Amino acid sequence: MSAEPEIDPGDPGQVSHPPVFLERQGYRRRRLMDAARLLPLIGAGLFAVPLLWSGTSETEAPYSLSSAIIYIFGVWAGLIVLAALFGYGARRLGRSSDVPGPEPD
Amino acid sequence: MASLNVLVLVCLGYVALLFLVAFAADRLAATGRSTWLRSPLIYTLSLSIYCTAWTFYGAVGYAARSGLEFVTIYVGPTLVMIGWWWGLRKLVRVGRSQRVTSIADLISSRYGKSNTLAICVTILAVISVTPYIALQLQSITLSFSIFAEADPNNSYNEIASVFWVAAGLAVFAILFGTRNLDANERHHGVVTAVAIEAVVKLIALLAVGIFVVWGVAGGVTDTMARIDASEIGQWNIDRGRWATITFLAAAAFVCLPRMFQVMVVENDDERHLRTAAWAFPLYLLLMSLFVIPIAVVGLDLMPEGANPDLFVLTVPLSQGQQGLAMLSFLGGFSSATSMVIVAAMALSTMVSNHIVMPIWLSSRGSGASVSGDVRSVVLLARRVSIAVIMALGYFYYRLSGGGAALAAIGLIAFAGIAQILPALVGGLFWRGATRTGALAGLTVGFVLWLYTLLLPGIGGEVMPAVVMENGLFGLSWLKPQALFGIDGLDPMVHSVMWSLSLNAAAFCVVSLFGFPSPIERLQAAQFVNVFEHSAGPRGWVGSVAQSEDLMIMSQRILGAREAQVFFHAEAQRQGGRGHLPEPTPMFLQRLERELAGSVGAATAHAMIGQIVGGSSVSVEDLLAVADESAQLLEYSSQLEAKSDELSRTAHQLREANEKLTQISLQKDNFLSQVSHELRTPMTSIRAFSEILRDTEGLQPDEQTRYATIIHDEALRLTRLLDDLLDLSVLENGQVNLNMGEGMLAEVLDRAVSTAMTGASREMRILRNETNERIPVHSDLDRLTQVFINLIANARKYCDATAPELSIRVHEVGGKVVVDMIDNGSGIPRDSRKLVFEKFARVSAERAGGAGLGLAICREIMQRLGGDIIYLNGHQGAAFRVSFPSGYQLAAQ
């Protein structure tokens, strides 16, 4: 998407056109955003895994609740850490370029 | 043992503390020294009103009944927060750019500011949230009762305490929530109080959890062993419920009015979402971390039949931990109060804005033009709404009996409020979503939810058993918990599946076939493409950075130089040294006016609003822009028409001027020629009369000769003056035609004989007498004059050795044509155009007349309705005289 307004090349008040290819930092930031978007999908998938567990076959022993707790809370904590890392990374990359540029929508 | 009185005192003290905090925060925000109030931490903590007393107490009960399933209530919101980049970011941006006040306002604003939709959403929200509020009342009452049971001098009255709790909460909500007049302003006080309550409830639950794990169970490993050994120790979940409730919690997290209030309306800066994206899930994780241990230990310790919903309180009490129990009580109390306050605030905003105010305004008749007392009316409406909502909650509690049936109501409320989801998500991401579609979807979802979940779920005999067993009207496919014959599903899963899927289907289908109104389409574009229309993420605090943006924009509109001069002048007016002025209201007003001169008032307003207010262009702005450009267009087309008219007039004026110049030139020529013609004879008259007067002894014959010359010249003068007079009379149209009848031959005879009288040279006249026998009805004397003139000219100017003049007469179509052709060398081609002009003479040397003859001829012929032209293509001079014979004319 283009959050930036159209820039008149003859206008002295403007600097330049937005580049077709981003510099390395901008590119990194966008890929970070992609990863951040992927995160809830991964989370939903991981949280759905317990649906596959419960012993449909009678022979298998059902999982114990403690292991389920460890799995669920482990996934949960992992998601939180990743989200925090993405937030931190986005802020660091965003701050160095100062202006929040066009997001890759 | 803590007495009930102490408990009440603690509650009152706690509330007083909260009130002080809220008051201080409001004061701080008013003075603008409140940066920490706008911090992401406060925002994250305020989101915790998601965790109500139902989750604080109820989660443990839930876990004691169905194991790990309770976690879905938290997993849904976690996924939503982690996925903020997908949806919440857009929701918050839209909410801020459109200055949305509630979820009903958002939905109504998206679908063309439809108040019908707003009323629907408001009613849905009130119906869903009222039981939820009743639930809070119940939890507070239950926790009171726990302490009351332990109190030896027990004078506890449950009904009375519910009433006082409800009344207290109402007063609390009114005092907090309706302090600010402006609904758009953020309630810093409430948000801060809610944040503190969030900390209190987290600490309380963590404290109880830590006590249970390390104080009772003896460490993590032992706790895990206890969990596995307990009756819920097997992994055994209903898969449908797991997925459904996760989804439902996620949907409710976005759609609940109180969540919308803190997440969107109270949001200061959308960058806070970035922090909340991980911090809020962390909060939820901590809130649910000790739920299972508390449940398991509670099941172990407490006697059979104890209410697991109150383990958080009863377990510490049973271990003699009064202080911890008190803290736990405060945690539950915090959860309930914060939820009730924010929910009542959000609902009262919706009710007053979308139901009370429209009714009040229409009852006033004069519409929104009354301004003075509207604000106080809004405030009053909100306060009354809060009271009414609390009263509804209270009566709901009384009616439902406050039993275990209430515990299920949390999820039922979730399912009800989730009916907004299709309209909300569709509105944010699909431009084709229409108002009628949203209405249809909401209605279908609401009715199905009511029929399949709410009515069967609230207990009592609200839904007759006959209907439950056999379906509505005895139709088995209408059984509330087995629609269309699909049986065996969990009632919750069944209801959510049917209501939400049919809701979404109705929404999509009706939207596809409908056609939105213009304002709907404009709003759709504004919402769906919000990132293209609104400014980037920015705080509300004004800064010089805005001046830079304003500068860039102004340069584009005013031109770089002018803009710089204007900004510099403004900076100096403000007394600053820099080139950029502070964005004060005065400066903005002047700038707007300056810009309005270039782009129109509405556009300028919208542009400055976009940069300074952080709010996007509203539809009204756009409509105003459209109006303005339409006016401009009309104005410019009027201008164009006028300019065309002017240029036509100018063209006509130029032509008239040229004509006048020509006429003036002709007049000058005429005068100079006339004076020249007069001068020549006058000179000779004067000369010869001087000779006669001054010369002595003139011979008589000489005297006679000179006198003759004088006489001749005088005659010539007379003739000239006669001619001029004649011409003038003819030209002015004052001539009286003396119409008569005669034969053309006679006219020609007379002309020839007159013209040839006294001729020095012989000239043969060739005539065809038979052709000339044409009767004419005309001014015969004038006609004769024309012919005499022509024949005399031929006699004078024909340069042939044996001059001949042939006169040919035809009659063509009622016109008599007389050609007079001599055998001379004719008139030179260049002069042919001029022969009919006054004083035009072909050659100077043979100047016989004044050059008025042919001019007079042409005037006469035009008076007679005919013409005289020079005939090209003959060797000699050839003139054609044509005129109507008059008889055919008379016959017609």
TrEMBL record, chain A:
The chain crosses the membrane at residues 38-56, 68-88. The keyword Transmembrane helix applies. Keywords: Membrane, Transmembrane, Transmembrane helix. This is Uncharacterized protein. It comes from Falsiruegeria mediterranea M17.
UniProtKB/TrEMBL annotation, chain B:
The keyword Nucleotide-binding does not apply. Its EC number is 2.7.13.3. The keyword Kinase applies. Residues 673-887 form the Histidine kinase domain. Its main location: membrane. It catalyses: ATP + protein L-histidine = ADP + protein N-phospho-L-histidine. PANTHER family: HISTIDINE KINASE 1, TWO-COMPONENT HISTIDINE KINASE. Belongs to the sodium:solute symporter (SSF) (TC 2.A.21) family. This is histidine kinase.
